[in-house]
Amino acid sequence: MNSSSISATASADDDLRRAAELSGRGRRATRWYANYLLVFALGSFALSVLTGTLPTGPGVLVTTLLWMGLIVALSVYAARQRAAIRNFGRLHGAVMAGWTLAWCATVVLGQQFFAGRLWWWVLGGIAVALPPLVGARVTRRRAD
Amino acid sequence: MATGTPGRHPRHGLDEVIHAPVRLSIVATLSGLQRAEFAFVRDTVEISDSVLSKQVTVLEQAGYVDVTKGYVGKRPRTWLALSPAGRTALDAHLAALREIAAGPQTAADPSAGAASDAPASAAPSG
User: Fold this and answer.
1) In this structure, which of B9, B64, B104, B121 has its CB flanked by the most CB atoms within 10 Å?
2) pLDDT at position B72 over 90
3) Are B95 and B77 in contact (CB under 8 A)?
């Protein structure tokens, strides 16, 4: 092996190492989305339980205000972040679609057949928390 | 864009635009992301605003990086994203680097003389 081959190999090695390091740093900066989804999941669970347990009039107002406050806070948090994971749009869309389906099923069936039954709203809370929890796990795996 | 005539040596697969260290650092940073803020790339690659701006212009003209300007509230923001052509070029460039890094056994340079018969060593992944 001559000296130019050795230096070419070492230089390529350095470039590869640097590229891998920077790619990793970029991906790790997207972990915020996992935190976002975890908070969203917890908030969704609480939303379901509160919706099922609070009395309808004032309960709806309180629940709505709390939920709106959470969404505004999460939106501000997301807007301040400097990097988004690859295929973020698709992932976020899938999480929100899953959440919407679970929430609609929980509310429609709950109000129709299970009004006042706490177990339904706890189960519904788990169902609506599931899509963002799965999204958080996917994000962590992609970001590591 | 890769230039030069195809030959036995993997250096012909190196992309002239991406090969520059700073530009390679920029596209590598963007490789795992949908998009990143200008300031984030600057801080990660550890260069100044003006250097990043110049290199991004080169990458944008090559079609490898997309630049989007917008606002968050009243604050102007510039976002950088690797284009599909940029991803393809980066993948090809990294593949060429891995071949070179595998050693002269699999990267025989016709201008240097005889090729080696030794098996290729494991190349680091990018």
Assistant:
1) B64
2) no
3) no
pLDDT digits (tens, 9 = 90+) for A8-52: 777 899 999 999 999 999 999 999 999 999 999 999 999 999 999
Task: Give the pTM.
Answer: 0.82
- CB neighbour list of residue A80: distance below 8 Å, 6 or more residues apart: B72
Indicate whether B18 pLDDT > 50.
Answer: yes
Q: Which of B45, B100, B125 sits opposite A12 (nearest CB)?
A: B100
Does residue B58 register a pLDDT over 80? yes
**Contact (CB, 8 A) for B105 and B2:** no
For the range A130-133, what are the long-range contacts, defined as Cβ-Cβ under 8 Å and sequence gap of 24 or more?
Answer: A130/A41, A130/A98, A130/A102, A131/A94, A131/A95, A131/A96, A131/A97, A131/A98, A131/A99, A131/A102, A132/A37, A132/A38, A132/A40, A132/A41, A132/A44, A132/A95, A132/A99, A133/A37, A133/A38, A133/A41
Of residues B1 and B116, more confidently modeled: B1
Residue A80 token pair: 């301040």
Q: How far apart are CA B32 and CA B68, in angstroms?
A: 18
Token digits of residue A62 = 């309180």
| Residue contact A20–B45, C-beta within 8 A | no
Q: A83 exposed, middle or buried (CB, 10 Å; 0-12, 13-18, 19+)?
A: buried
DSSP state at residue B115: P
**What crossing angle do the helices spanning A88-113 and A32-53 adopt, rounded to 10°?**
10
Contacts of A31 in chain B (CB under 8 A): none
Interchain contact, B32 vs A27, CB within 8 Å: yes
- Which chain B positions have a beta carbon within 8 Å of A15's beta carbon? 21, 24, 97
